[in-house]
């Protein structure tokens, strides 16, 4: 559905040509039948470290550029990062830590809870000095 929406916006001229990179965290299968699967990238997605943004900038984007022979912009102003739930906090955290890489962010229902210290963001945001990009 995202590809169709992007294709239509680009074709109509409402959006410039855009590369969409969509990442599913994957699952770690349960070692026993009585336990459930867990998301593979919980620490990267839900944590407040730079693990996820480094994964994107050092592994995923170079891989996409090389695999599809693309010259991707390195300007954060040309990039948007988005996510919902754990992806929402991951997107916000990536933009928070590296606005030079992602200065546009859409976080839908971000998991800003004590799950992996995401509950610290309201305090961090209030204490951080204002800046304009």
Q: Report the biggest beta sheet as strand number plus sense, adding barrel if it closes.
A: 2 strands, antiparallel
Structural class: alpha+beta
Global morphology: globular
Strands side by side in the biggest sheet: 1-2
**Helicity, as a percent range:** 25-40%
Average pLDDT metric: 84
Uncertain runs are none
Strand content: 5-15%
Instruction: Quote the distance from N terminus to C terminus.
Output: 32 Å
What does this structure look like?
By secondary structure, this protein is α+β, with helices and mostly antiparallel strands. It has helices spanning 2-12, 42-46, 51-67, 86-97, 121-127, and strands at residues 27-28, 38-39, 80-84, 104-108. A two-stranded antiparallel sheet has the order 1-2. A two-stranded parallel sheet has the order 3-4. The longest helix has 17 residues, at 51-67.
Q: What does the secondary structure layout of this molecule look like, with pairings?
A:
Blueprint: H1 2-12, E1 27-28, E2 38-39, H2 42-46, H3 51-67, E3 80-84, H4 86-97, E4 104-108, H5 121-127
Parallel strand pairs: 3-4
Antiparallel strand pairs: 1-2
